[in-house]
Amino acid sequence: MTSKGFPVFYYDRLGVSQSQRSIFCAAPDSKTSRVSGYTIQFPTQVQILGALSKLLRAGEYTAEIGKPDSIVLVGHQFVFLPLLKRDPEQPHALTIAETPNNAGEDIKIGLESYSPRIANTVEPRFSGLDTGYLFFGDIFNHVNAFFAAPNYEVDIVEYAQSIAQPFAIVEWLSRVATPFPPNNFSGPVLIAAGEYGFITCGGDCPSTFSENIAQTIFQGTQNLETYVHPGSGQSLNFHKNATGFY
């Protein structure tokens, strides 16, 4: 995207990668402030995205390019949909890498495929995290949740596992209580999903798309495009034909 002249702003969701997390050995000062996996809640993630989007629109982090003419949110439905219900004027366009689905069903399928375990007991790199963070039971659970045979390579799965991040248990539980209601967002929307996406489609995204769930949620837009990428699982970007999606 940057090669096409589009500035890209990205951040680590609270509790993920380089953002704040609860680490036992961290000193409780301003520089090492951490958040427990028992503290992070889904509504907090929505608030953070909304605040960052407003700051970008105001030119807070875009000094070199000036105030942006438009903001396109790119990512998962995870926090987009509640944000749009509350403030449909936030972004100018959306690109969502999974089909909208019932949040409760999404969580049930996700937990089944993840077979989650306390992260600090299954991965040495998470040894400092508190017990509020969970991770795949093993690499095979990762495959079950995000990959579709035969369109992936084993070394890519191993790489994906090596960079995958744990999730906060309270965040997932509070997500169940957060519905994905219809919104009045009127900008362009692109929704893309892998043909065999398991978590949001139960392994059959063409069928899920045919139910017109996206049309029900995005009632305010006249520019809604849906796309199912053939042969791919949930993680579009880790499959052999990912370049076709891009």
Walk me through what this model shows.
This protein is an alpha/beta fold. Helices cover 34% and strands 11% of the residues. It has ten helices and seven strands. It has helices spanning 42-57, 77-86, 103-114, 119-122, 139-146, 154-163, 169-176, 205-210, 213-217, 242-245; strands spanning 72-75, 93-96, 117-118, 133-135, 167-168, 189-194, 224-229. The strands form two sheets. A four-stranded parallel sheet has the order 1-2-6-7. The chain has a three-stranded antiparallel sheet with strand order 3-4-5. Strand 1, helix 2 (77-86) and strand 2 (93-96) form a beta-alpha-beta unit. Helix 1 packs across helix 2 and helix 3 runs antiparallel to helix 7. The longest helix has 16 residues, at 42-57. The chain is globular and about 45 Å long. Mean pLDDT is 85; it is low at 24-32.
Helix content: 25-40%
Taken as a percent bin, the fraction of beta residues is 5-15%
Uncertain segments are 24-32
SSE string, helix = H, strand = E? HEHEHEHEHHEHEHHEH
Outline? globular
| Radius of gyration over C-alpha positions, nearest whole angstrom | 18 Å
Work out the number of β strands.
7
Overall pLDDT, averaged?
A: 85
Structural class: alpha/beta
| Order of neighbouring strands in the sheet with most strands | 1-2-6-7
Terminal Cα separation, in Å?
Answer: 10 Å
The largest pleated sheet is described as: 4 strands, parallel
Q: What count of helical segments does DSSP give?
A: 10
